[in-house]
Write a structure and sequence with these properties.
two-stranded parallel ribbon; 6 strands
Length: 318
């Protein structure tokens, strides 16, 4: 029985040759992502802005203007509406909730909205609601940003000490690129950005660093083995040697995420979408950004070798 090989043996794709084009595309996409975040902003969920979010499901696709006018007549604050799910019959209704609101105020608001919508739209059913105070949401924003920054910084420092400083810089640049692409995607699509998405971003960072470490390890091994090989040729060799593992890992993860996207429902749609984008972008940055950036940073074969390593390298050199 023949094994299925997605990447043929002896693959020799010249990734480094396209690095200038890849760098230009990466820079343009990164600038576009940052521009989208500043121009459109992120559609923060209740986790980050505070208040109460109510999910209501209607028999048919409801007119948002009628829902908004119905809720506004209750005098519970200005409503922010968002249709959820592929059928758009489920609507998220986000309402402000003052920090000094008495205990049980959220339940009272929810009951008012449920009763008003049930009377206006027969057959409408209440799904669930979540509530977060403004003080808690501010703390969650700080902790979320801090978690992402510390993760990137810690990974860069680890790569620096594990290999050379060039590996740390290239890894940090590639991971920041992956994070910014995710933020730009959510600014473009206006999908709700909540704690689930922060968890997705941290998971993307973990996946990206795993992929990059595999390639970096192979580059480091080949630097000791082929001390006289040109760096572009050495990086192409290393990336091609790890390409079957990279492609297979990405495809299997995407298959699992695809099933989750289709059958997981709208509650997991934001998390799954972020993960799918992160896997694709992370694989691209591992192959075209992180590894090729080592050439720009002037990494040379045999860099920072001890005497024992140098002796072993000399024995392995063809």
């Amino acid at each position: 029985m023949r094994l299925l090989k997605i990447v043929p043996d002896n693959t020799n794709i010249q990734f480094v040759r396209a690095r200038h084009v890849a760098f230009a595309i990466t820079a343009l996409l990164t600038i576009a992502a940052i521009g989208l975040v500043f121009a459109r902003g992120l559609n923060f969920g209740v986790d980050f802005v505070g208040g109460v979010a109510i999910e209501e499901k209607f028999v048919t696709v409801p007119p948002l203007d009628q829902i908004r006018s119905t809720v506004d007549e209750l005098g519970v604050g200005e409503a922010a509406l968002q249709q959820l799910g592929s059928d758009s019959q489920t609507v998220s209704i986000r309402l402000p909730l003052p920090d000094d609101a008495p205990e049980g105020a959220a339940d009272a608001v929810v009951e008012k909205v449920k009763s008003a919508l049930a009377a206006k739209f027969p057959g409408a059913t209440f799904s669930n609601y979540t509530t977060v105070s403004g003080k808690v949401s501010d703390e969650l924003i700080r902790n979320g940003v801090l978690a992402v920054l510390l993760a990137v910084f810690g990974i860069a420092v680890f790569s620096w000490f594990r290999y050379e400083w060039q590996f740390g810089v290239s890894t940090a640049v590639a991971i920041l690129h992956d994070v910014l692409m995710t933020l730009g995607f959510f600014a473009l699509t206006r999908m709700a950005f909540d704690l689930n998405i922060v968890a997705a971003v941290l998971t993307i960072i973990g996946y990206s660093i795993n992929d990059k470490m595999v390639i970096d390890d192979r580059i480091r091994e080949n630097m000791r083995k082929f001390r006289k090989m040109d760096m572009p040729q050495l990086i192409d060799l290393s990336v091609n040697e790890t390409l079957p593992r990279t492609v297979m890992t990405s495809l299997t993860i995407l298959l699992a995420l695809g099933s989750l996207l289709i059958f997981g429902g709208h509650v997991l749609r934001g998390f799954t979408s972020a993960m799918i984008l992160g896997v694709i972008v992370g694989t691209y940055s591992s192959v075209y950004v992180s590894s090729s950036l080592l050439i720009t940073l002037k990494l040379k074969p045999g860099t920072k070798m001890g005497p024992s390593e140098a002796t072993a390298a000399e024995r392995m050199t063809p």
